[in-house]
Specification:
Strand order of the largest sheet: 1-2-3-4-7-11-15-19-23-27
Structural class: alpha/beta
Number of domains: 4
Number of strands: 37
Distance between the termini: 78 Å
Length: 467
């Protein structure tokens, strides 16, 4: 007569994650032997310390009779198994397709194996390392509600049918690696919680792929050199610490929210989730490449506001990688390089133009520049002559005691502002003109700046409106 035991599902699940030995003890009788079967929650399991070959090489097995309670309505269902020790079915043909609710407590090795039918790992639990590298799933595979707590290796796996990883959960110490995998049909990772790294480098997706719809990624999500031939949905609930897109090809339509890649996920801001870090330091060159890849993604969608945003940050990291190393130290301490960096790159390209992506910054700089030169023309060494060779500010002292004096002061201020504006715009009516070397020098400088800013504003605005 077989021994059985009823186990609380929540208690067993918690111990399985944190106290493995105590979880195993719950499966044993007083003599230290494993029960033949246990009931965890509402599901009855058969326990196998070592998995017999026929469990995997036969479609059905008397070791796992059909479950009359049918936990999943409309689906033929056999009693699930709890496999205690590690299993190795590398390079074997696996005929079993029903792995509903199975619990693998040791390592699982299906390297280069071939699954002949439509395989169901729904609600399966993998407590040890899982190796599906090079495996062939000929008619599709379903991992809905499956749990992975350690490394899951899907490198080079071929999914000839649908690959459904919907509502999957992975532990914080886990990693799911799909490098060079082939998804020939639909791939679905929706409504899942991935607490570990997710790697899809060099993977190929031939049909529609779903990574979004309430899916959360908490650590690394990498698509380096991956190819998406059809639609890709990346409108996720949350991206984790890092998302890699270097060399990724999106040949079909793409859906993604640019703000989710940023520090503030509600609006476009610093793209913290695109920054490559090595040994706790930013790798500026690799970060630059990753941000550029995202910029190109939004050009394809198209979403030009997002494209401009990531182009701006691409130019920032291009600048930083050119002048500084990853520790923030100057590569060249030449004073000329410092001046070019601060005046041209920081002062003009970044702060004023936003690398030609922010026309309103340029527009704001125009009146600011006019008013600044208006104040410079007020210096005691500067002179401006008006009609009849009258000199502005000559013998004029501001005083609050005289209304006439205040009016005259404002009149001279407005005339100086007018002179600054027509000089900035290079109109030159001739009614006011500079007198003295310093004033003429300032006027020449303002004229050059005016031409530069007006041209920059027109270019930036045209780019924003027409592109």
């Amino acid at each position: 007569m077989s021994e059985s035991k009823k186990i609380d599902k929540e208690v067993f699940g918690e111990k399985l994650k944190n106290k493995r030995e105590e979880a195993l003890a719950m499966l044993k009788n007083d003599k230290g032997n494993y029960f033949d079967e246990v009931q965890i929650g509402n599901i009855k399991y058969k326990i196998f310390e070592n998995a017999p070959d026929e469990l995997f090489t036969n479609e059905t097995s008397e070791l796992l009779p059909e479950d009359p309670s049918k936990p999943i309505p409309g689906v033929r269902h056999h009693y699930p198994a709890i496999i205690i020790e590690s299993i190795n079915f590398s390079s074997r043909e696996i005929k079993r397709t029903d792995f509903y609710f199975w619990c693998f407590l040791g390592r699982v090795n299906f390297k280069d194996a071939e699954f002949a039918g439509k395989v169901r790992f729904d609600r399966a639990t993998f407590c040890g390392e899982v190796n599906f590298s090079g495996t062939e799933f000929s008619q599709g595979v379903y991992f809905q509600h499956a749990e992975f707590t350690a490394f899951a290796n899907f490198r080079g796996t071929s999914f000839h049918g649908d690959a459904i990883f919907e509502r999957v959960s992975s532990g914080p110490d886990s990693k799911m690696d799909f490098m060079s995998a082939r998804f020939e049909k639909k791939a679905n990772f929706e409504k899942s919680q991935f607490s570990g790294d997710m790697i899809f480098d060099k993977a190929t997706f031939y049909e529609t792929t779903y990574f979004g719809n309430k899916t959360t990624y908490e650590k690394v999500l990498s698509f380096k050199k991956a190819i998406f031939k059809e639609r890709c949905d990346l409108e996720v609930e949350n991206f984790g610490d890092f998302v890699g897109f270097r060399g990724t090809e999106f040949r079909g339509s793409l859906f993604i929210d640019g703000a989710k890649l940023c520090e503030n996920e509600d609006k476009l801001s610093f793209p913290s989730k695109l920054i490559v870090k090595e040994d706790g330091k930013e790798n500026k060159k690799e970060s630059k490449k990753n941000i550029l890849a995202v910029k190109q993604m939004f050009n394809k969608i198209p979403s030009y506001d997002d494209e401009d945003h990531f182009y701006y940050w691409y130019k920032v990291y291009e600048r930083e990688s050119k002048y500084k190393d990853d520790d923030g130290n100057w590569k060249n301490k030449n004073i000329i390089n410092h001046l070019i960096y601060w005046l041209w790159h920081i002062g003009f390209l970044d702060k004023i133009t936003g690398y030609f992506t922010k026309p309103w910054r340029v527009f704001t700089a125009i009146p600011g520049t006019i008013f600044l030169f208006c104040l410079l023309y007020r210096l005691p060494w500067c002179s401006i002559n008006g009609p009849n060779e009258t000199t502005l500010w000559e013998n004029l002292t501001f005083s609050l005691k005289s209304t006439d004096n205040i009016i005259l002061f404002l009149e001279h201020l407005l005339k100086t502002l007018y002179f600054s504006a027509i000089t900035f715009a290079t109109i030159g009516y001739g009614d006011f003109h500079p007198v003295g070397f310093l004033t003429m020098f300032l006027a020449a400088v303002e004229g050059i700046i005016g031409v530069l800013l007006i041209a920059t504003f027109l270019v930036t605005l045209t780019k924003k409106v027409l592109w």
